[in-house]
Amino acid sequence: MNMYDIITKKKHGGELAADELSYIIDGYVAGEVPDYQVAALLMAICLRGMTIAETTALTKIMAASGDHVDLSAIAGHKIDKHSTGGVGDKTTFIVSPIVAACGCKAPKMSGRGLGHTGGTIDKLESIPGFRTNLSQDEFITVVKECGLSLIAQTGTLARADKLLYALRDVTATVDSIPLIASSIMSKKLASGADAVLLDVKVGRGAFMKTLEEARELAETMVAIGKTANFPTAALLTNMDAPLGNAVGNSLEVAEAVSVLRGAGPDDLRTVSLALAAGMLQLAGQGAFEECHARAENAIRSGAAFEALLRMTAAQGGDTAVLHDTANFPQARMQRTITADADGYLTRLDAEAVGRTAVLLGAGRMTKDSTINHAAGIILHKKYRDAITAGAPLATLYAESEEQIAAGAERFRAAFEIGAAAPAPMKLIYGAVDAEGWHER
């Protein structure tokens, strides 16, 4: 067996066997297969694709290339969640406490912000004292005691995926659906949960720009889960516009708290309840509608907010900022952007808003950039809202006047005001499970 023959086989559209994929991945991780040959294979995969059998085999091999989290000491259903990334997406802070309040366990390893999309770990670290780097024993203890724990993903989980992603990033092979699916699912298989619900974002602020692409990705990941005997389902949710009104780390945590306390923006509440219901359904707590009612009751009773407080305290976080979000450290500078015409907000581009937040200091310009947890944006108007000239559209928060100026200039390209109200925007397109596609 050699790489030249394997590359040639895939170049001509052949299906790679599991032992061939093991030869590639194990050899690459061990430093025995050079990156230029792996890069050639990645491009062949991009052009020729992979079958579900190939993609599942690749996923399992990558999952086995690093540590496996053993959660067997935790009783009950352990349900994971993964989002493909968006702007203003703080649903984990709402969904995980809801699931815990409903009697399931929600252990989750998350990542940091990437490009214009925010990261759960950066948001968690805006809570003073919150520890995201727990040992596996500490992680398990917190889940046992609180029903949930949110921590940073370890660098030793699915080691092959980390190496392959770095190579894909510089060889224009990131956008291959089999490679995206195997990357996500390898980490989920290694994370030790019993099942996973995927939130596949669709639109301008998401990686998958069209419903067709997003549905193909969701169906591929669900098929991998089915083949690997790992229950998997997906919701396809809208990311043309930011989710909620807050974009930025502590601002988003504060908004998530508002939803858990029975308030918050309707779009964020709607998507969060649907995700929570999907997770509870995977845990066997009934049909979707029944699980949705359970999730609503967990908010109404205050049990979900109490679950967030318990986890925060257990991981060293200052719960005072959750009891009163005005206690979060505040940005030094702010500026309100106003409308220059009457009409309706016909476009609020999620990616442009996310890139504005990065310029303000809420995200990273480079991998070594320092996050300003207080920086970000509060949107005062959303898509389809009526607008009057001079009305506030958004308030920008940053540390310096230079950041505010750069952010204000960028934000001007994020929205359009038109004379007529645009068509309504669908928040949830549908779901994919082991039985197939279900439009919502």
UniProtKB/TrEMBL annotation:
Q: Which GO terms describe its biological process?
A: pyrimidine nucleobase metabolic process; pyrimidine nucleoside metabolic process
What the entry lists under Pfam families is as follows: Glycos_trans_3N, Glycos_transf_3, PYNP_C
Identify the residues that the record assigns to the Pyrimidine nucleoside phosphorylase C-terminal domain, covering every copy: 344-418
**Entry's Gene3D superfamilies?**
Nucleoside phosphorylase/phosphoribosyltransferase catalytic domain, Pyrimidine nucleoside phosphorylase-like, C-terminal domain, Transferase, Pyrimidine Nucleoside Phosphorylase, Chain C
Alphabetical list of SUPFAM superfamilies matching this protein: Nucleoside phosphorylase/phosphoribosyltransferase catalytic domain, Nucleoside phosphorylase/phosphoribosyltransferase N-terminal domain, Pyrimidine nucleoside phosphorylase C-terminal domain
UniProt xrefs under InterPro entries: Glycosyl_Trfase_fam3, Glycosyl_Trfase_fam3_N_dom, Glycosyl_Trfase_fam3_N_dom_sf, Nuc_phospho_transferase, PYNP-like_C_sf, PYNP_C, Pyrmidine_PPas_bac/euk, Pyrmidine_PPase_CS
What this protein catalyses is: thymidine + phosphate = 2-deoxy-alpha-D-ribose 1-phosphate + thymine; 2'-deoxyuridine + phosphate = 2-deoxy-alpha-D-ribose 1-phosphate + uracil; uridine + phosphate = alpha-D-ribose 1-phosphate + uracil
Q: Which UniProt keywords apply?
A: Glycosyltransferase, Transferase
Which EC number(s) are documented for this chain? 2.4.2.2
How would you classify this enzyme at the top EC level?
transferase
What GO cellular component term, any one, is given? cytosol
Q: Name one GO molecular function term.
A: 1,4-alpha-oligoglucan phosphorylase activity
- Protein's job: Catalyzes phosphorolysis of the pyrimidine nucleosides uridine, thymidine and 2'-deoxyuridine with the formation of the corresponding pyrimidine base and ribose-1-phosphate.
> Would you identify the family this protein belongs to, as annotated?
Belongs to the thymidine/pyrimidine-nucleoside phosphorylase family.
Q: How does it assemble?
A: Homodimer.
Entry protein name: Pyrimidine-nucleoside phosphorylase
